[in-house]
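User: Design a sequence. Structure:
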């Protein structure tokens, strides 16, 4: 099966990495691909954006070459692995602005969330990256 979505993730964030592993387990048909945006040779400019923008919110590249950002990337990822029913509220026009704002707040605080949820943070990155 063809990859439906490539996700660009923050491997330094334990919570983010755990979510990518969860999606990978659910992805029985190989619909998702993953790229560590902190990996060697990665250049956000290759995708028409900046590392700062990618660091601020999850980004995904769909098969049509569209860059999906934030809750749109999350909804596409969950849909690709057969869990669209979990993210249907993210797609509702009426509530989408609230979900977008909530997600952006969470993304800014993902290192703190990682630490508070008990994820091990390599080399103290959660303490250093507290925002």
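Assistant: Done.
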């Amino acid at each position: 099966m063809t990859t439906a979505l490539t996700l660009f993730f923050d491997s330094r964030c334990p919570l983010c990495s755990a979510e990518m592993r969860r999606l990978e387990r659910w992805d029985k048909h190989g619909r998702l691909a993953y790229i560590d945006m902190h990996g060697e040779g990665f250049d956000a400019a290759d995708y028409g954006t900046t590392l700062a923008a990618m660091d601020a919110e999850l980004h995904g590249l769909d098969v049509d070459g569209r860059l999906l950002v934030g809750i749109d990337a999350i909804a596409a990822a969950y849909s690709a692995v057969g869990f669209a029913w979990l993210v249907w509220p993210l797609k509702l026009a009426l509530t989408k602005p609230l979900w977008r704002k909530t997600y952006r707040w969470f993304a800014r605080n993902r290192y703190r969330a990682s630490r508070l949820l008990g994820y091990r943070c390599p080399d103290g990155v959660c303490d250093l990256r507290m925002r």
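The longest strand covers residues 5-9. The radius of gyration is 14 Å.
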